[in-house]
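New to this. Comment on this protein:
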Amino acid sequence: MKLKPISKAILAAAAATSIMPFAAQAADVNVYGLVATGLYYQKTEGADNGNVGMAQYKQTPTDSHFGITGREDLGNGLYVGFQLENGYSTDLGAMWENNRLFNRVARLYAGNSQIEVSMGRISTFTCASDPYSVFRKLRANMTASGLPGMAPATMVFNVGEMDNAIAFRTNGDDGFFVQGFYSNGSSSEETEYGWSNNNHVIQAAFGWTGQSLRIGTVLNWERPSHHTDGTKPRKNETTGIHILGSYDFGGPAVSAIFYKGSNDWRIGGAPDMDNMIKGVGGLTNYADSEDGMDLTVGFVSVGYPMGAHFFSAGLGIINADWKGISTNMKETKGTAYQASLMYYYNLSKRTQLYSGVSYSDGDKLLDTVDRFNQIFGTVGLQHRF
């Protein structure tokens, strides 16, 4: 069919407008990420032999991830942007969560020089990952590692990434800061029992960041969902406070975290508390309880840079006191100790060799969980792009 001149003009204009926005967006969109791989050794207490293998997701200091960000300046100091980030395992090349394309972050945000607000799937403040990690902002973990026995996020209140979240922070590199977070639960929890059964989480943080001293507080409140289908008693609310900070001596640096929690339903982000609470014969004390566990956690770490080298060490202690049903349980209280050493060698600004070792030992109630009773070692390479 022969096109009339006006039709050709319309098509040309449409083609131009369809190409130009993508060209403009391409200038503002950035791809980033980290690839980490290595070998690890892990031996749990009581095992005859340890395991040796290629490191998977959650077995490297920083998890392998791939992300896309974009930002547009709207004028008058305003901006809008997005961040999409996925975690993956380098040993298999597989996404960490099969049913999520962006399991780590999926957010749209807007702000100005004073404040930023985000909505979407966002990490809570006591995770080590951006965009709103208070642990990272205050340099609270000098080992810079999420490995077993090294990360404070595996010891304190940590619900990880949350769906249906809204968060804000004040902008600025130094000085006083305030942050807030709310999530009304995962979409997978929106059952016939309704929105009120969702896992609601609120966090508030405030503190100070300076050239040497960084200090802050994180308050958390969680209203857990029912244990199963709503027929069991509802878990009582979790409340807790983190006090954390660091000091840089112009090279060597030290950090500390203190956490006090009431009615916790996990230690760190791992959903393994039900394995601790089983009585003799595998009774379901955890599933039938309204009250959870009271936790007291302390963690200190030190870091020392020396040219291309970075040395660090961490020490943590957990005191746990189960307050729920304890039928036929031998122990309701327990303590766990964790000690770690970590070393990085900077081959460039973006590439590091790493090695590390940790030792964890739990007694009484915490003697029943492998992650509190093991030796872990690793060596590998990570590259940022």
The longest helix spans residues 5-28. The chain has one domain: 113-384.
